[in-house]
Design brief:
heterodimer, A: about 300 residues, alpha/beta, Rossmann fold, 2 domains, five-stranded mixed β-sheet, 12 helices, globular, B: about 270 residues, five-stranded parallel β-sheet, two-stranded antiparallel ribbon, 7 strands, binds thiamine diphosphate, binds magnesium ion
């Protein structure tokens, strides 16, 4: 179990990967101190590149770095590396088939006091819409470390949404993950909750609330939103007949949409969605914001109990 | 009078930040004198009718300095001072970054750097198209001027000859990760804005008289927008934190809070 900050995981893991692989470069847009990579800027003076506050140029430059054979990792707050620079991500990286890993930090309510301008509920939808992209949302520190370690072999555009601070530990140290494969966190046969990121703890709590009422609810961590684990999803959808998706994101275009698209055409399956419904962000602490946007364990449980 | 207003804005802003125990101190402190001049004298405003269409508009493009603007608006009577305690609270009308639909007196929603500049250009252009004489003031950060969008805004504003637009540059030399000269060395803002065909001037951004004179002069200029580069100190007025990279967004320890209280009391005691 690890309750380390994910930003610390990023800095430590990238430092050890960079020591082994000289082609790795990290790009920042004046938020290096927010993710703590500034702590290794002495050691890797040339390979940690602070572009300044110019996200579109940073993404475009990352594409260029990839063209000449380097492996760029680009970080900023999630809205700035997705929405703010979307056409650059779409064309210079996606369409031009360059190999770039984009780290978007503090998506959704995790942006907390930075408020509406910094609180994307659509970053996953945007990234998912790019052909051949890989879209992941990290569940905890153990997963992030493993995925980063694998990422030097990734091809094309990869978007990894993380929370900068510590997350509830879900996995034992040393657990490994496979892109396109969900993880069953809890078995159950009355309903299945398919969740990502900070919604996993709500999903696990919801399963407990339901258990008290005599319902057996499965929980799946669908951290790989694209590619999606269609087989696992279909299996649990058929077993339970009731799928509830739970995401810290707009219901449009994210996990809920991906699950609905995957299960379209299946008979006798009810799909409910817990997510942000036609709303922008705002300032506040996570528990408050989860309540405002109806992202709590009780909200999930209500879909099963009522 | 303007100096007294500035002291009041500074003390009030620090009080809000101290109460919340965290926030964007550095960039709020560096714009205090500019806000005092704008809201204390130069802008045509009516705090009781914040949406009056004949008003001058102000866009805080570096939206993270919201606290300083909220203090200014509250002192001017746009809303109840008691609200200042709700800065960044759950459900507040005073969020970290400015929101035109939450706070009376905020003319544009900002927080994603670079965007407020373009919006201000659009306002100035729109007012011209409507044959109106209102002015638009936009305050941008020196780090914010890393954003390519700002240069598009400059080119466009100058091309359209928007002499109703005054761009104020808070040149406090620091952005989030450190000194701008180390991160993205923007050339002299005077040279840059001049090259883009602006009227330009350069003043001490903590000297209310100098700022006031520069704006008064800018109002007489025709056919081009004006840029006023304000030489400022990030964290101005809070000596322990002045010019520190770490002052961008701070969490205040108990000791910091005592120190801030001391600064607030000192500001209140200075004779007019
Ligand atoms: C598009 C965008 N990118 C990044 C940020 C995060 N950010 C907020 S303030 C800031 C630094 C701004 O520096 P400057 O304009 O000099 O303002 P100051 O902090 O000096 O007030 C950064 C990078 C943002 N708000 N918007
Ligand atoms: Mg600055």
């Amino acid at each position: 179990m690890s309750e380390k900050d994910l930003r610390t995981i990023y800095t430590e893991t990238m430092a050890s990967l960079m020591a082994r692989d000289e082609s790795i470069v990290l790009l920042e847009a004046d938020l290096a101190s927010a993710i703590t990579t500034h702590q290794m800027s002495e050691r890797y003076q040339e390979r940690i590149i602070n572009c300044g506050i110019q996200e579109a140029n940073m993404i475009g430059s990352a594409a260029g770095l990839s063209v000449v054979g380097l492996k760029p990792y680009v970080h900023s707050f999630a809205p700035f590396v997705t929405r703010r620079a979307y056409d650059q991500v779409f064309l210079s990286i996606g369409y031009a088939k360059q190999n770039v890993v984009i780290i978007g930090s503090d998506g959704g309510v995790s942006a907390e006091h930075n408020g509406g301008t910094h609180m994307p509920f659509e970053d996953i939808a945007l990234m998912r819409a790019i052909p051949n992209s890989t879209v992941l949302e990290m569940s905890d520190a153990v997963m992030f470390k493993d995925i980063l370690t694998q990422s030097t072999m990734f091809n094309g555009l990869t978007y990894i949404r993380i929370k900068r601070k510590a997350m509830r530990a879900i996995y034992r140290e040393g657990t490994t993950f496979k892109i396109g494969t969900g993880k069953v966190l809890k078995e159950g046969h009355d309903a299945v909750i398919v969740a990502t990121g900070i919604m996993l703890e709500e999903a696990l709590n919801a399963a407990e609330i339901c258990a008290e009422q005599g319902y057996s609810v499965a929980v799946i961590d669908m951290f790989s939103i694209k590619p999606l684990d269609h087989d696992l999803l279909k299996r649990y959808a058929k077993l339970t007949g009731h799928v509830i998706t739970a995401e810290n994101h707009n219901l449009v275009g994210g996990l809920h949409a991906a699950v609905c698209e995957s299960l379209a055409g299946e008979k006798d399956i009810v799909i409910d969605g817990i997510g942000v419904d036609e709303a922008f962000g705002q300032v506040g602490l996570t528990p408050y914001l989860k309540a405002v946007y109806h992202l709590t364990a009780q909200d999930i449980a209500n879909k099963i109990l009522t | 009078m303007l100096n007294e207003f500035a002291r009041n804005i500074r003390a009030t802003t620090l009080k809000m930040l101290k109460h919340r125990t965290f926030g964007h101190l550095g960039g709020s402190m560096s714009i205090v004198e500019t806000l005092a001049v704008l809201y204390g004298k130069q802008m045509n405003i009516d705090p009781k009718r914040p949406k009056k269409t004949s008003r001058d508009y102000f866009v805080l493009s570096k939206g993270h300095a919201g606290p300083a603007l909220y203090a200014t608006l509250a002192i001017k009577g746009y809303f109840d001072r008691a609200l200042l305690k709700t800065l960044n609270d759950n459900g507040t009308t005073l969020p970290s970054h400015c929101d035109m639909h939450l706070t009376p007196g905020i003319d544009m929603t900002t927080g994603s750097l670079g965007q407020g500049f373009s919006a201000a250009v659009g306002m100035a252009l729109g007012l011209k198209l409507k044959g109106k004489s209102n002015r638009v003031y936009v305050l941008v950060g020196d780090g914010e001027l890393n954003e390519g969008q700002c240069y598009e805004a400059m080119m466009f504003a100058a091309h359209k000859g928007l002499d109703n637009l005054i761009v104020l540059i808070d040149d406090n030399k620091l952005q989030l990760d450190g000194p701008r000269t180390k991160i993205s060395n923007t050339l002299s803002f005077m040279d840059v804005f001049k090259a883009f065909n602006f009227h330009v001037s350069h003043v001490d951004g903590h000297d209310t008289k100098a700022i006031d004179d520069a704006i008064t002069h800018a109002k007489t200029l025709k056919h081009k927008p004006t840029a006023i580069v304000l030489d400022t100190v990030k964290g101005k007025g809070v000596p322990r934190f002045e010019n520190q990279t770490s002052n961008h967004h701070m969490r205040f320890s108990e000791d910091d809070q005592r120190y801030l209280e001391h600064i607030i009391q000192t500001l209140k005691k200075v004779p007019v």
